[in-house]
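Narrative of activities, Objective 1.

The group set out to show that a structural description can be obtained from nothing but a protein's sequence at a throughput compatible with the screening campaign. Below is one input-output pair from the validation batch, recorded exactly as produced.
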Amino acid sequence: MSRPAGREPRRPTRWWRRRSLRTRLTMIAATAIAVSVFVAFQVGIELLNWELQDTAENQLRADSRVLATDAERAGLAQVQLPPYPGSGQLVRVILPGGSTRTPAGQPALPPVSEHAGRVAQGASADLMESNDSDGYFIYTLRAGDGAVQVARVADDSPITRFGLGMLLIGLLCVVGGALLGWAVARTGLAPIDRLTAAAVRVARTRDLDADIPDEGGGEIRRLIQSINDMLAALRDSRRAQRLLAEDAAHELKTPLTSLRLNVELLVRLDRRGTLDSALPAESRTRLLNDLGAQVAELSTLAAELTDLARGDVSDESTELLDLADVVVAAATRARSRVPDIEVALDETSVWVSGRPAALQRAVLNLIDNAGKWSPADQPVQVRLRAEGASAVLEVDDAGPGIDAADVPRVFDRFYRADSARALPGSGLGLSIVQRVVDAHGGRATVARSARGGALLRVDLPAAAPPAPTARLTAG
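Output recorded for this entry:
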């Protein structure tokens, strides 16, 4: 059965995940060395055992040939067998009848096996046997009418000493590997430790101006560069927020001061009871109109600041739309907001993929900006057409145009040319246009129109129109 989704990991896995990276690397290094030493130990034991056995068998064969030569020369029954010296190899002579002869004082060997008896009978020339129960290697060689045997007890002491030596070396290697792994992990993770300390310092002090030193190489360098890029983006964001707050405070101060002074004047005259005498009806009407205009300017500025502070165009989703419908809707809103403005439309159906409300706000800002400069008898011309793979929107006026020195800063936040200081506005309208166009992958530019005024042009990527829907008619 598979483990249910969301189930807690097993305890060893949970314990392993809780260890630090330095501890993990140290344990991995020690484990790898321990496994390597164990494998080397097993291979060494097998090789040593094979070498010792091969040496013992070669020695048994050589001693057996010497004894067989003596037995054939003197006879199996008369060959001299020296007394057993107390250690070393064991010998035995197998006579033709099946009986055996052994040196005096020699320990008893295992009984002659059936295969060894066949060698004595001439069925084969020699035989190498190992007796696991007694630990003997016995070599049988045909000699005369019988056979001779030379035996040696298997000596495991070299293997035991080799095993103890390998165990000691393995322990030293494991300890040394753990220390080496810890040192390597400490050295390799030193940049990450410094990076962590720098991140903690930034989080504690909120100081985004200190970059992390670019050191190390490979993945560490890329990580440090990425974090430095993130800090730079945070610095830019905080600087933009500070500039937005400062500019907003500056722009709000003038209308708020004027609004406060006018309201205080009305309140002071009303308290004195001299409102009607001090302010004639015409002056009072003009003052109230100024108050309404200032409130409207504050409302517009607050809405534009809200749009800019969002950091994105809006939460609405992207959809396929006809940009001509957006332009017509924006022109209608512009006429309703400023009845004196005259908008001349020349639109062609061009489909784009975008956010309707954001695009309509951008077009409305372009028309409002042109309406401030156009003379009363000259309309604002709005043209929409398809040009290659782009939807081109042009808004021009017959005003004085934009000075060459002001062109690079037309789309900056709160920027207003010296000639526009006396006109209503916050300097945010074209900045919003720029942000909306950038969010839709387009481009906004400014030039001089044929009528001498400003020509603001927006290029947006065009999209294929939707397929026409078939109509069903009943016959």
